[in-house]
Design brief:
The complex is a heterodimer of chains A (about 500) and B (about 170). Chain A has helices at about 1-15, 25-40, 45-55, 65-80, 80-90, 95-110, 110-145, 150-165, 170-185, 210-230, 240-255, 255-270, 280-290, 295-300, 305-330, 335-345, 355, 360-390, 395-410, 420-435, 440-465, 475-505, and strands at about 15-20, 20-25, 190, 195-200. With about 500 residues, chain A is an all-alpha fold. Classes of the chains: A mainly alpha (about 500), B mainly alpha (about 170).
Chain lengths: ~500, ~170
């Protein structure tokens, strides 16, 4: 095993070299990292788009270079997607949605540099933890994931929504309803069992379900831009001492090392489960942090650095987790992993158990590439932070039309249909109203992401087991977690309400 | 004493209640497999919304009091409501205009036009900033979305401007 790891490292750092100096696989990895960083910072684009562009070029590459460039693109997307999330409240990719919650208020308070420092460092640690867990966990996790059937997947989805929904502060019912809005929007289109059309009202565009990208951009980007324009000032009126803030942010990540490790492990685990993936991992981690760290109920959502650290450690660790089923079982853990699977096949490699026997060195090439990509990505972004953070000082009237134009372009490229713009605007107005009337938006996004997974697994469970699936040990265990999560949420809301009571009684 | 007062938040809750009631009623017409999941969601949600509506209508609340802490981005409450509504209306009007322009003239023309007009008319920026902003968005649109991603731009109602642009940048 150690031999294979060393061979893999030699493959990356060995020749053939450009100009007899720079190893080609390392150069490819670096190129992939630069491309991935750019894509992550562009709202609506992400690792899948990058891989789709890169994949045709890998035909002529040697196997190590091909793997290096593919991993380079995907590994750092969730590091640079922090930039628009923190600066403008616009999630760069689906996995940066939760970062907006505390990252953007930090930028408003003049702490953009600190938010970036914390995000990049926790992303790096998360990415490295994911890579390490990828290296050691395959034999351990395999029997565990095989225990998971449709009933457990269904309950896991419910657990995710309940965790995020009860974070709705003083009104957990609003959080649960917001989750239900997402779920019901997720049922629009042809149903997965019979193909019967639901809530389409004769619109062909809606047959293929409501796409996530325009909804997420509409819910978060448009309300944030509108509110910034309403205020009519810069994003932050506090002078940004970015470089100083970066150091503080890095220290924050180390001060909260246990949170980073917990969320990294959570991210790897969620990445490992096929079908959950990028859009939920950050919310799971954010929900976990909000329920476990001290004082979160008072400070989360108002610019608490721990609200940045939790999702950022998890979303980078997810890549390592998603690689586990891709490599070990030949089952892609996410949509970007499906393209990596394609890339492996282009190279004539059949993922699955043979990757662990005949091509163990290539498996370790993936591990090393993942670790090196995270290091390169973090170092590059650290150098850029001071310049990027200065954007918070530009007048919003200059920034807003450009960001909104990019948001429209990003929403449209999701399915290249005019309906995307209708969805974007509808979600934008709904998101603005929800924000104004204190309805939480995160559970709605999570509901939309999980609707299809929940419906499919509920149907399979009911058909296969009748009501007996409710008695499965895994289901009971997760059900108890859901009850505990809801009880905790309602208890805390009640406690918060009683504390507020003297001020509210009239 | 609990008093039944019509409040703005109750309108929004009522709107959601209406939507969910309608979704429940629509789903009753579908076959069992198709309506199963929507019913599982809608029935408890309608119940929760009725409770929330009761809370919105009956819970004592002072004028101007916060709607409660919520785990979401904070709202700036320093701007007066009438200004918020006016400015938000103007911004959403610009966005509605952009959608209309995309439908009529196409993406490749409307996006730079939006940036240029917004910066010059709404933001009243200097021409140098207008030109830099417009040039930046053209570079991004043509360079990344058109040339690299090969986005299929939907056909507008009046395609002549789009065709003219494509003859310059290459279709």
């Amino acid at each position: 095993m150690l031999d294979a790891a060393m061979i893999a490292l030699e493959n990356i750092f060995g020749c053939p070299c450009y100009l007899e100096v720079i190893p080609i696989p390392l150069a490819m990895l670096f190129a992939g990292v630069l491309f991935g960083l750019f894509l992550g910072a562009m709202p609506g684009l992400g690792g899948i788009v990058g891989l789709a562009i890169i994949l045709p070029f890998t035909y002529d590459m040697d196997t190590t270079s091909a793997l290096a460039i593919m991993i380079g693109v995907t590994a750092v997307v969730s590091t640079s997607d922090t930039i628009p999330a923190v600066l403008f409240g616009v999630p760069g990719t689906a996995s940066a949605q939760a970062t907006v919650m505390d990252g953007h208020p930090m930028a408003v308070k003049g702490e953009a540099g600190r938010a970036f420092g914390a995000a990049y460092m926790s992303s790096l640690i998360g990415g490295l933890v994911g890579a390490c867990l990828l290296a050691v966990s395959i034999p351990i996790l395999r029997p565990l994931v095989l225990m998971f059937g449709s009933p457990e997947f269904f309950m896991l989805g419910l657990l995710g929504i309940s965790m995020v929904a009860v974070l709705a502060g003083s009104a957990p019912i609003k959080g649960l309803v917001a989750g239900a809005i997402g779920l019901i929007v997720g049922t629009v289109g042809s149903d997965p069992q019979l193909g019967e059309l639901r809530y389409t009202f004769g619109h062909l565009y809606l047959w293929d379900r409501v796409p996530l990208v325009p909804v997420a951009l509409g819910l978060f980007a448009i309300p944030e831009m509108v509110d910034l324009v309403v205020k009519g000032t810069k994003i932050s009126n506090v002078p940004t001492k970015a470089m100083k803030g970066v150091a503080v942010g890095i220290r924050d990540a180390f001060d909260n090392w246990f949170l980073v490790l917990r969320c990294s492990a959570l991210g790897t685990w969620i990445g490992f489960i096929p079908g959950l993936g990028a859009s939920v991992v950050d919310w799971f981690a954010y929900g976990h942090a909000a329920q476990t760290v001290k004082g979160a109920r008072e400070t989360f959502g108002k610019g608490d650095v721990r609200g940045v650290i939790a999702p950022e450690s998890a979303n980078n660790a997810r890549e390592g987790g998603a690689l586990i089923p891709t490599v070990a079982f030949g089952i892609p853990g996410s949509s970007s992993m499906a393209l990596i699977l394609g890339g492996l096949m282009i190279q004539g490699i059949q993922p699955g158990p043979s990757m662990l026997k005949e091509h163990l060195d290539l498996t370790y090439t993936l591990v090393w590439s993942l670790a090196l990509s995270n290091i390169f990505g973090t170092v590059i972004l650290m150098f850029l932070t001071s310049q990027v953070a200065k954007l918070t000082q530009v007048r919003i009237n200059i920034i807003a039309p450009i960001i909104l134009a990019v948001v429209f372009l990003a929403a449209f490229q999701a399915t290249a249909a005019m309906g995307d713009l209708g969805i974007l605007m509808t979600a934008g107005v709904l998101g603005w109203l929800m924000k104004r009337f204190a309805w939480p938006r995160p559970p709605m996004v999570l509901g939309l992401v999980l609707a299809n997974i929940l419906e499919r697994n509920l149907w399979i469970s009911t058909n296969r087991y009748g009501l007996d699936w409710l008695l499965r040990p895994g289901v009971i265990a997760i059900f108890l977690l859901i009850i505990a999560s809801l009880a905790y949420g309602f208890y805390m809301a009640n406690k918060g309400g009683k504390q507020e009571a003297p001020a509210t009684k009239g | 004493m609990l008093a039944l007062k019509m409040r703005v938040p109750a309108f929004f809750t009522g709107f959601l209640l209406t939507i969910f009631t309608l979704s429940l009623l629509f789903s009753l017409d579908w076959r069992h497999q198709s309506r199963f999941f929507p019913l599982v969601i809608s029935i408890p949600t309608v119940t929760m919304l009725i409770i929330q509506l009761g809370v919105d209508l009956l819970k004592p609340r002072k004028a101007g009091e916060s709607l409660g802490a919520v785990m979401d981005l904070p709202v700036d409450t320093n701007v007066p409501t009438n200004k918020v509504l006016t400015r938000a209306g103007i911004m959403l009007g610009w966005l509605a205009g952009l959608v209309m322009s995309i439908w009529l003239l196409g993406f490749v023309v409307s996006i730079p036009l939006f940036v240029c007009l917004y910066l010059s008319i709404q933001a009243r920026e200097k021409w140098s900033i207008v030109l830099i902003g417009t040039a930046a968005i053209i570079t991004l649109e043509v360079g990344l979305f058109h040339k690299v991603l090969h986005v299929y731009w939907a056909q507008p109602v009046f395609p002549f401007l789009k065709d003219a642009v494509f003859s310059v940048i290459g279709a």
